[in-house]
Design a protein that fits this description.
The chain is of the alpha/beta class. The chain is 38% helix and 21% strand. The chain has 15 helices and 18 strands. β17 (388-393) and β18 form a beta hairpin.
Length: 422
């Protein structure tokens, strides 16, 4: 049977986050890395998530990759499509969320969709169109200082309107609180008035279920992973999805373990501090990467000595003020590229040294690592922390991976992830 849902995610950890949500709903889910070759066999799954590394790419590249992924998913037989971006709506005034949404809508010949990055389980809520991170407005949160996509406006209607010529409206809290029928009626009214994109308020998980149940007739959905909560039940109601026991089953992978962290989020910095208190750790100085070509080998020599005794941590994460100083010296793009290249090389060396269980923190870092390891796809397992599942690669010599968005996970995430990975 062909997959039901085809998803396009703008980064690797975001793809895993969405896949985790679908597995929790009983959908067998496979994550593919990059746009699949046109001759690739369609995996046996209820949902397929194509993971791109397009969040901070130039707009034209992000649009082209997303359209190519959509074409493959259409040819695979998917019935409904999902464009997944971060629950903090990471983008600039130029894009990429708006331009990619416009392109996908055009290719699917639809004039209406929604945009809902809410994920209350991880503290992302939308009220009156404003996105909150915990108790803070997005514009007051640490995302204000994000090195690539600083979010200084919490009003998603205005943020998205700056990225698209389509009309951006709001489906307010009172409508969502009234239930799925009220949401469906409001969507119908917006379609009749000319369509466009609707930001949808959501404060509690039950709001996400109400919204999800109203999306049956939308060919395209956009948002964070939370909005997928109601989709599996929609498919069951349509007779497309059975009660799937064991949707999160993945094989056990023995071998050494390591943690790689490139994210500079506050959450990841706390996780690094917690983990390195009890485990060997190596902090990479990005300035040394620019001046010293032997840093990667130095890290690998250190790690090879340590990994037989237990997991190790390698990190390039720095507080925001340090990141700004590094970017001023090296350039924003250059600094990020140096770290990604180093982490990719370290990951390859660790795998060659017998590491088979790898935790990676940060979307850009995860993308660089997975690409360097030539991982073609992932089978999605059980949730470790909200938004982060255990996974196993689909390759001939599989490895266990936990790919974590920088903002996700509790202080003890690294140890918890290694314990949960089979």
């Amino acid at each position: 049977m062909a997959p039901i849902l085809g998803c396009i995610a703008d980064d690797f950890t975001g793809a895993t986050d969405l896949a985790n949500m679908l597995v929790r709903g009983g959908m067998r889910t496979v994550q593919l890395i990059g746009v699949p070759d046109e001759n690739k066999v369609v995996p046996e799954a209820d949902a397929i998530v194509v993971a791109l590394k397009s969040r901070t790419n130039p707009v034209e590249e992000a649009v082209a990759q997303s359209r190519a992924a959509l074409k493959w998913l259409e040819n695979a037989g998917c019935r409904q499509f999902f464009f997944k971006y971060c629950s903090t709506f990471d983008s600039t005034d130029e894009g990429n969320i708006g331009p990619v949404t416009d392109a996908l809508m055009a290719d699917l010949k639809t004039d209406f969709t929604i945009a809902c990055p809410a994920f209350p389980e991880t503290g992302r809520t939308i009220f009156k169109g404003h996105l909150f991170v915990g108790d803070q407005l997005l514009s007051d949160s640490p995302m204000r200082n994000h090195p690539l996509t600083p979010m200084t406006d919490s009003n998603l209607v205005s943020v998205l309107q700056r990225q698209t010529e389509k009309s951006v409206k709001l489906i307010q809290f009172a409508t969502v609180e009234a239930g799925s029928e009220a949401v469906s009626a409001e969507m119908s009214a917006l379609k009749a008035a000319g369509g466009g994109v609707a930001i949808v308020d959501a404060v509690l998980d039950r709001h996400l279920f109400s919204i999800g149940y109203s999306l049956v007739d939308l060919v395209l959905i956009t948002g964070g992973s939370g909005i997928a909560l109601g989709l599996p039940e929609n498919y069951r109601r349509q007779g497309l999805l059975n009660e799937t026991a064991g949707a999160d089953a993945i094989p056990a992978i023995p071998g050494h373990a390591a943690v790689l962290a490139g994210s500079c989020s506050v959450a990841t910095l706390g996780q690094i501090d917690r983990f390195k208190a009890d485990h060997p750790s190596f902090g990479i100085d990005p300035l040394r990467l620019a001046d010293d070509q032997n840093v990667v080998e130095e890290v690998l020599d250190w790690a090879r000595e340590k990994i037989p005794a237990g997991p190790v941590l390698v990190y390039a994460s720095q507080p925001s003020e340090t990141v700004r100083a590094i970017q001023e010296r090296l350039g924003r793009a250059e600094a990020g590229a140096l770290i990604e290249e180093a982490m990719a090389g370290i990951a390859k060396g660790l795998i060659a040294s017998g590491v088979r269980r790898l935790v990676v923190a940060g979307g850009e870092t995860s993308g660089a690592v997975v690409s360097a390891l030539d991982v073609s796809g992932l089978r999605i397992g059980a949730q470790i922390d909200p938004g982060v599942p255990a996974t196993v690669s689909l390759d001939d010599e599989p490895i266990a991976l936990a790919l974590k968005s920088g903002n996700f996970g509790g202080p003890d995430f690294f140890a918890k992830a290694l314990a949960a990975m089979p």
